[in-house]
Amino acid sequence: MIIATLTGIESVPQQLIDLGVDRYKINIEYVTVPVRARIVFLEKLGEMLKERKTEGSVAEGGVFQGDFAREINRVFPDKTLYLFDTFTGFDKKEAAKDNISGFSEFADKISYFEMTSEDIVKAKLPYPNKAVIKKGFFPQTAQGIDDRFCFVNLDFDLYDPILAGLRFFYPKLVEGGAILIHDYFNPEYGGVKSAIADFGKEYKINPTPIGDGFSVVIYR
Ligand SMILES: C[S@@+](CC[C@H](N)C(=O)[O-])C[C@H]1O[C@@H](n2cnc3c(N)ncnc32)[C@H](O)[C@@H]1O
User: Fold this and answer.
1) pTM of whole model > 0.90?
2) Cα(117)–Cα(23) distance, rounded to whole angstroms?
3) Cα–Cα distance between 139 and 192 in angstroms, integer?
4) Kind and range of the H or E element at 118?
């Protein structure tokens, strides 16, 4: 039996165990290996930036329930963490645009990203006082921020906000800083790869895979 879930990575195995399924029959590596690889990348990059005493804030664009935001906050406890999300799911026009462009078959039908809130995210953060939550439509919510950044995770899934995120954050990256972008290798969100390709016409960039099978990183 195959159960497809990402957000249920902890709760679904527990439900199966409670139902009497033997623990050794439950294999969750298909999800845990890529998730773990991304976290290890973040931890090691965080160590290196700390050793180099790299300045700058950190940010995530596309937060949902805050699972990766928690890791960023843990790895960078002293840095201001900007969190950008509508907290009400995809913008309908943006999702429909990726659907019409042929980037994503499902983007305009996805409603589960609505199932979140700022409180759900804040409750997960080990250092919530370092978080600045920017609720609403990105890039409008980024207006007025003139920080430099040493690490940004872009996980908006769609063409427009990924391109807007690169245009906003890349010029603000400190030397050695990095933008991690999820879903580059995910054919269900083809807008991500296209946005990075189009951004590459504006700046000379070298997107590099990080080994999780989904993400690329761009350094400054
Ligand atoms: C895949 S989820 C993020 C997952 C999260 N990074 C994690 O690791 O758990 C994508 C999120 O991007 C947000 N999003 C997409 N386009 C947006 C936009 N233009 N402005 C604000 N949020 C946006 C959606 O609301 C959704 O919560």
Assistant:
1) yes
2) 32
3) 16
4) helix 118-124
